[in-house]
Design a protein that fits this description.
Pfam families: Peripla_BP_2. This protein has 12 helices and 10 strands. The strands form 2 sheets. A 5-stranded parallel β-sheet has the order 3-2-1-4-5, with helices on one face.
Length: 295
Amino acid sequence: MPSLATPPRHALMAGLLGLILLLVSVDEAHADAPSIATLDWTIAETLVALGTMPRAVAQVDAYREWVGEPGLATDVIDLGLRTQPNLELLASLSPDRILISPMFANLTPRLLRIAPVDNLELYTPDTDTWQQMRRLTRRVARLVERPAAGEALIEATEARLAQLRERLPGEQRSLLIVQFMDARHVRVFGAGGLYQAVLDRLGLANAWQRPTNPWGFSLVGIEALVDLDARLVVVEPLPVGVATRLAGSGLWQALPSVQDGTSIRLPPVWSFGALPSARRFAEVLTTALEGNDGV
């Protein structure tokens, strides 16, 4: 009778065979996955989150700076500028599909000479942002033949945001979410944008109630923020030299949240993203708010 600590030889062989078959099936599934190129970072992050790494993406280094996570694989090919991609390189890759957003629609005739093109829209006026992100996720998932992965991504994101909402300390001040364009001008994020959609699901108030553009932000001078008594949330990256200039800016130092030391600085989160960026923003914001008393 064999020892309980030593499985029979046939059991070992069966287990090994099962592992081999599993690895083969994974490799075959990967081989069957369509080869996708995209010029759009929101589509790129969605592809990665769905488990379908794009073959090529425009401005890969800038993606890593502005989007960060989910990360692109080291072998993802850089197509050059998003607005002026290297079409010869793209053609040499023979992608199955090219995914773009309306921002790059003018390139469609040239891209169609290389592969079928799908134009995926997000951030349309007077439409619920969260529902748009869900629709984009489902459409991308269908295009890469992974509809179940799309549903799983939606469910996991919404469940995680519900968990984060429960973690937040009570009695939070209104937030004022900005991203610097230069030392005197910021994007302030409000209605219609990704950050607002996340705030709504976390039960947090946004101090910026003024009109916004279709991407959910207003471009204003710092002086427009002085009269708003709210916790300031600065989303990186900062343009070169801005941090030094702010240290000596009387206008910046006059902001209530800067004066009382309650301002928050967050790592880069793609403000024009979809569900992956929404989850990342919720994660980093919740962590930052947990680190103080919320008043």
